[in-house]
Write a structure and sequence with these properties.
The complex is a heterodimer. Chain A is mainly α. Helix content of chain A is about 75%, strand content about 0%. Chain B is mainly alpha-helical. Chain B has a two-stranded antiparallel sheet. In chain B, helix 4 crosses helix 7. Chain B is flat. The chains are: A mainly alpha, B mainly alpha. The interface between A and B is large, with 41 and 42 residues.
Chain lengths: ~190, ~210
């Protein structure tokens, strides 16, 4: 139990996927203009990431490894994920229209994103067990949501600041992210796995 | 002239990293040294050019409803080739690039060029577009990598630049330095493009 908790805490804070591994930056800068959208995106990413990483674990360890097809695992995993997310979108649209109204638009952006593909690939590389990789993916999602919401609230504040003209928009967002990443650096060395 | 325009717009005007702000992950993740930045840039150039050609060749046979999975499969195949080649011939670089090499598959810029340009244009033009975007990507990567390595480690491609007396600014190699540096580079590119636009407007008025 202890190691699961440690893994969770370390993926949320120490090895935060945005701020120390730089995955999912496109979403991070694209959707962090207001807090509500950021929270919705964070929840969608967490859900999709946990589900896909469970499925990818099963596909890799139960199908690709026995068949000796690991050398084309990349092609199969990417294709599988594209189909899976599309399916998920259809299911949500059919059975939970209210949920779809809120998060539907985010799902397709999520489908081909580095953080969604990155986490299952890291799980495979590190040879995590099923439970371990599920916790890892969930932690990664929570960490992603945390950083996204923090960033969005910072950007809402900075809208009233007098920023030099060339830095407006993306430029200042990067510098903010740098400060945020510096703050998260305080966690490093706290937990080591 | 027109061909040159297709090629050149990827370099500065629509630079994939610093203007379009697509595929930012590798721009910070693998630019802590020049060597990894160059390897990554070359890989992306190869993938984007080849994929543009493939997409342009098959554009008439693809049903628009299933185009995205098809494009992704094509990209994933091309990337797998690059991964296997690097694994075999440059294992130490492969190790350093790690997971980011495989993640080339989902770089937004590659899918975006296939969707926006290659699926509507001839093979030759798509090749030029992909090659130009790739070169712009490579250029931005090398600039970022060079600044970070020189300031953060005092070396360029592993050779010492300032000698022993230099005290390296470690933050440039760490993640926060990468973010902050790209912020300033984005602002610089915005200034260049803005002043160019202004010049062109003045020239247009006088003509």
């Amino acid at each position: 139990m202890k190691e699961y908790l440690l893994l969770f805490a370390s993926t949320v804070l120490v090895n935060n996927f945005i701020l120390s591994r730089f995955l999912g930056l496109c979403i991070f800068f694209g959707v962090s203009k207001n807090v509500n959208a950021a929270a919705g995106m964070g929840i969608a990413v967490t859900g999709v990431m946990t589900l896909t990483s469970m499925c990818v674990w099963a596909v890799y360890n139960l199908i690709l490894v026995p068949l000796n097809l690991t050398f084309i695992s990349l092609v199969i995993i990417v294709l599988f994920m594209a189909i899976f997310v599309q399916l998920l979108e259809m299911i949500i649209r059919k059975f939970a229209p209210a949920l779809y109204q809120m998060w539907g638009i985010y799902l397709l952006i999520v489908a081909t994103n580095c953080v969604i593909l990155g986490v299952p690939l890291i799980n495979i590389e590190a040879n995590y067990s099923f439970a371990f990789s599920t916790v890892h993916a969930f932690g990664a999602g929570v960490g992603f949501a945390l950083a996204l919401v923090l960033m969005a609230s910072l950007r809402e504040k900075i809208r009233f600041a007098d920023v030099p003209k060339p830095l407006e928009g993306l430029g200042i967002a990067f510098i903010l992210a740098g400060c945020l990443s510096l703050a998260f650096f305080g966690f490093s060395g706290m937990i080591s796995i | 002239m027109e061909n040159w325009k297709i090629f050149a717009k990827g370099l500065i005007l629509e630079n994939p990293i610093l203007v379009l702000a697509l595929s930012l992950c590798p721009a910070i993740a693998v630019t802590s040294s020049v060597m990894t930045a160059i390897t990554m840039g070359l890989t992306v150039t190869y993938v984007i050019t080849l994929n543009n050609v493939v997409v342009s060749l098959i554009k008439n046979f693809v049903n628009p409803k299933v185009r995205v999975p098809i494009y992704i499969t094509s990209i994933a195949t091309i990337v797998t080739i690059a991964v296997l080649v690097l694994k075999a011939y440059a294992p130490s670089l492969y190790k350093e690039l790690g997971i980011y090499l495989e993640l080339v598959v989902v770089f937004a810029i590659i899918l975006a060029r296939a969707e926006v340009f290659a699926s509507k244009n001839s093979v030759g033009r798509s090749f030029l577009d992909g090659f130009g975007m790739g070169c712009g990507f490579l250029g931005a990567m090398v600039i970022i990598g060079a600044i970070r390595e020189v300031l953060g480690n005092g070396t360029f491609l592993g050779f010492s630049v300032f000698g022993q007396a230099y005290d390296p600014a470690l933050i440039m190699i760490l993640p926060p330095g990468g973010f902050i540096l790209i912020g300033y580079l984005v602002a610089l590119f915005k200034m260049i493009n803005d002043s160019r636009e202004k010049r062109q407007r003045i020239r247009g008025e006088s003509a």
